[in-house]
Amino acid sequence: MDQLSSPKHLLAFCGSLRKQSFNKMVLEALKIRGHSQFHNELEIHIFDELGNLPFFNPDLELALEEGGLSSLPTDEKSLVALRYLKDVMAQADGLIIASPEYAHGVTGVIKNALDWLVSGESFVDMPLMLINTSTRAHHAQDALTEIVTTMSGRVIQEASLCLPLLGSQIRSTADLITSDLVGQLDNKLSLYIKALNQSA
After folding, report:
1. Going by fewer Cβ within 10 Å, which terminus of the chain is more open, N or C?
2. 42 three-state secondary structure
């Protein structure tokens, strides 16, 4: 098992808002397995506010930077979610994205979150682990790779993961971490940690 060169704080996005999302299950399983392997040296924070973010608006982005929000219609809940996103992103050592495929593309909540991050320095050279839960979802994975690479993120290809959960008997995070697939989770997380150590 790879040892961490220092405590790592990883941020995770789930591109599905479904309560019983396979992608959310994988992120929860990674969080459990990461704690099991690395204890307090690794924290995986699943960001649950993607659905509360405002739609990306360059005028709103500029108003936030200049403190001129009074001239724009804003919702306090969405602004809190947006500030929270920028804060946790600035503190992250790595980003994990698990997204389903909608109409051969990434989901709207993932694209919206990335649009809010595209101009920030925190995304530059950010190591990314990309996950999908269907072998048929390669269009979204390809599109996501193109988007984050354009944003100057660094996809760790050897750590990216495709788990065939769609159509499987797995129905919960507990099912996943007690299944034969848990070895793939551990292996990919280990490869991701290795890449993080090398870039530290």
Report:
1. N
2. strand
Neighbours of 127 (CB within 10 A): 21
From first to last of its 200 residues, the chain has per-residue pLDDT tens of 566 778 899 999 999 999 889 999 999 999 999 999 888 899 999 999 999 999 999 988 888 887 766 666 678 899 999 999 999 999 999 999 999 989 888 999 999 999 999 988 999 999 999 999 988 878 889 999 999 999 999 999 999 999 989 888 999 999 999 999 999 999 999 999 999 998 86
Domain spanning 8-199: which superfamily? Flavodoxin domain (3.40.50.360)
Report how far residue 193's alpha carbon sits from residue 200's, in angstroms, rounded to the nearest whole number: 10
Domain ranges of the chain: 8-199
Q: Are 151 and 118 in contact (CB under 8 A)?
A: yes
Q: What are phi and psi of 43, to 5 degrees?
A: -120, 125
